[in-house]
Amino acid sequence: MWFQKQISLNAKSRGFHLITNEILQTISGIKNIKIGLLHIFIKHTSASLTINEDADPTVRQDFESHFNQAVPENAPFYKHTFEGTDDMPAHLKASILDSSLCIPITDGKLNMGTWQGIYLCEHRNHGGSRKLLLTMQGEN
Amino acid sequence: MWFQKQISLNAKSRGFHLITNEILQTISGIKNIKIGLLHIFIKHTSASLTINEDADPTVRQDFESHFNQAVPENAPFYKHTFEGTDDMPAHLKASILDSSLCIPITDGKLNMGTWQGIYLCEHRNHGGSRKLLLTMQGEN
Amino acid sequence: MWFQKQISLNAKSRGFHLITNEILQTISGIKNIKIGLLHIFIKHTSASLTINEDADPTVRQDFESHFNQAVPENAPFYKHTFEGTDDMPAHLKASILDSSLCIPITDGKLNMGTWQGIYLCEHRNHGGSRKLLLTMQGEN
User: Fold this and answer.
1) Best residue in B53, B136, B139 to probe C by mutation, most C CBs within 10 Å?
2) Which of residues 69-108 of C touch B (CB under 8 A)?
3) Closest approach of chain B CAs to the CA of A132, in angstroms?
4) How many CB atoms neighbour CB B98 within 10 A?
5) d(CA B118, CA B26)
6) d(Cα A61, Cα A85) in Å, to the nearest integer?
7) CA distance linking residue B111 with residue B109, whole number of Å
8) Taking the CA of residue A109 as centre, how many other CA atoms within 13 Å lie in the half-sphere pointing to its CB?
């Protein structure tokens, strides 16, 4: 049993954003899957996906601070600079984090831990709308 | 053909630990799968999973040293500090590494390279027992 | 519907290399899959896989520069040094990036974004040929 759907997320500010509910709203068919997997793929190279703590918003602020410091703009060795100072760091952050997630499904629901949520990591200053491709499979 | 099982690993000290054998002991059904995939998901946001060299234990010690230096405790910009100085670095390390792995199965066995092993990456000082959700699928 | 194949890539120089076409040439059966997933697994611990911008080659050069600076050779705390100064950084880079990718298939093709390509990340000075295990599944 396979299901696939492309969705577009509204443009988000640079930073880390919880999108668990936006994802869940688009996969109502999940309720029919007893055991399965949800694969989420982002079709961009300057934004990414990760799973982390969904309770305290300062965690997401600290993610933005950490990655800005670990992957700085204007590193003297960057050659790919013509799309702006935020572009090359965005590509690097996207690969350090992830372009896809795979989340288990059990009895019709995502089976994540109590504090886990899905983050959209927007690494550009003006990234615009982002396209996600959702692929769900499993057995009834 | 789908199989899913949640397991709990005994509490481990902060650092990187080989868990390949602990995983294999819980998935005896793997012997019936000709081609497939094993998905391993950690239901926590301050511990993670990765695959790396399983032979020399100093590799795992160097992982701990590197990540402590690359993601330090007490960074001046951290706002999420009330759960201890090891907490925010643990969240960051978990996203830099991975919350899940997907490993190919061939002829009833995990088909990894000669030197590859599965690491449980415990980023907290006292993380306690960790829950993994194993989802296996494939064809006979 | 499952398909699995091991391939060997020719030895590549240290750095980041586009391998999208090399992958596509080995999975002609993809044209029969309406919805599915391609899993690519690298059977090594000092080379890795990621998805990023496939247009401008300076992006890949900046990847090499960034990771050399973020994960330096000769860090004073490394204990695993007997395989050369490029070895321990290679293990770390492999886990920061990824040992596997999972890419959606739609209507017989990989469904990636316009600018996305598959990178082989060679972290050793003389890594030699690298083995990839491709596992493809889906429905007609």
Assistant:
1) B53
2) 70-71, 75, 77-80, 88, 91-92, 94-96, 98-100, 102
3) 19
4) 27
5) 14
6) 20
7) 6
8) 5
Rg (Cα) of chain C, in Å, rounded? 16
Determine the Cα–Cα distance for residues C16 and C18; give it in Å rounded to an integer: 7
Asked if the interface predicted TM-score (ipTM) of this complex is over 0.95, the answer is yes
List all residues 6 or more positions away from C57 whose beta carbon is below 8 Å from its beta carbon. Answer: none
pTM (whole model) above 0.90: yes
Encoding tokens for residue A84?
Answer: 């702006």
Cβ atoms of A40 and A100 within 8 Å: the answer is yes
Candidates A35, C102, A44; CA nearest to B98 is C102
Give the Cα separation of C109 and C93 in Å (integer): 30
Q: Which residues of C touch B138 (CB under 8 A)?
A: 2
Q: What is the Cα–Cα distance from B49 to B100, expressed in whole angstroms?
A: 6
Cβ(B70)–Cβ(C70) under 8 Å? yes
Assign B29 to helix, strand or coil: helix
Residue B33 exposed, middle or buried by CB count within 10 Å (0-12, 13-18, 19+): buried
Q: What does the pLDDT look like over B98-112, one tens digit per residue? A: 999 999 999 999 999
What's the token pair of residue B69? 């230096």
Of A7, A10, A25, A15, the closest CA to residue A124 belongs to: A15
Cβ within 8 Å of residue B57, ≥6 positions away: none
CA distances (Å), origin B7, targets A12, B13, C69? 37, 18, 38
Q: How far separated are the first and last CA of chain C, in Å rounded? A: 8
Residue B68 binned pLDDT confidence (cut-offs 50, 70, 90): very high
> A126, exposed or middle or buried, with CB in 10 Å at 0-12, 13-18, 19+?
exposed
In the numeric block, which tokens belong to residue C66? 């960034």
Whole-number Cα distances in Å, C52 to A58, C17, C126: 28, 11, 23
Confidence of residue B58 (pLDDT cuts 50, 70, 90): very high
Do residues A108 and A33 touch, judged by C-beta distance below 8 A?
yes
Q: Burial level of C81, CB count in 10 A (0-12/13-18/19+)?
A: middle
